[in-house]
Structures are given as C-alpha cells and as structure tokens.
Recover the amino acids of this structure.
C-alpha cells in the first residue's frame, strides 16, 4: 500500500480502537479475547481496511482465530458504521501479523550470535599490546 495520509491514519486508529471494543463486547468469543491488533492499513479511498492481528498459541489456532474474525467481518463492519461518523465504512480483512514472530526470531538469532562471539573471545588468549613493557632509554 501507499504511504498513508494523516486522514487514513486517523481513520485506521479509530477503526482499531472500535474493533477492539466490538470484539470484546459484541462477539463474546473467548478464543478471540487472545487476539490483539497490531496495525490497521486503510486504503486511500477508505474502501478497504486490512487489520493485522497477532495471537498466542499454535499456528493452527492462530489461523482459526483469523478465519473466525474474517467470518465476523460483515457484522463488525456494520457495527463500525453505527459507531463511526464516516460516509464510507471500509470492507474489513483480517490478516495474521508475522512481524512479531519474525522480530522474536531475529532477536533470538542476534542473542545467539552475541553469545557465540563472547564464547569465542573468551577462549582466545589475550593479546599483549605492549603497554606492560617498560621503556628503556
């Protein structure tokens, strides 16, 4: 998607807040309480909104939660229309946000590399830089 304008950012943030409340109060599905929205991308014409979510659990459970949210998307869109004061209520599409997992994997790789580097430098003999030698002169 293109760089969001200030209006699409504001609408996206309002959609995120309203959806969080709707999912909690209207859906009342205990599986969906484990879902958190990381970001919302709204198209420039406000026709579409892509909502990125993350959730704890096994990959199959996460996929099921996203599919469930997509099944509830028409209901959520209708309720958004009642709560928000915008002419066009975007069509909602929920997607799993893999960035959180990627960041965790990358962080683990960096930690492992730092630990391996520290172990390697610990095993190497210290280099004498000549600072301990006395000058004769």
């Amino acid at each position: 998607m293109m760089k969001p304008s200030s209006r699409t950012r504001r609408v996206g943030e309002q959609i995120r807040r309203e959806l969080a409340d709707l999912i909690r109060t209207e859906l009342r599905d205990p599986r969906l309480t484990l879902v958190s929205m990381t970001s919302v991308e709204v198209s420039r014409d406000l026709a579409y909104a892509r909502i990125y979510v993350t959730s704890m659990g096994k990959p199959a459970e996460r996929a099921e939660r996203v599919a469930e949210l997509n099944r509830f998307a028409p209901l959520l869109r209708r309720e958004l229309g009642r709560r928000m004061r915008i002419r066009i209520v975007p069509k909602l599409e929920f997607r799993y946000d893999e960035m959180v997992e990627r960041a965790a994997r990358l962080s683990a790789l960096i930690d492992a590399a730092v630990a391996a580097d520290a172990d390697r430098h610990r095993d190497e003999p210290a280099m004498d830089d000549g600072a301990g030698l006395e000058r004769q002169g």
Q: What stands out?
A: The CA atoms of residues 24 and 97 lie 20 Å apart. The mean pLDDT is 84. The longest helix spans residues 59-83.
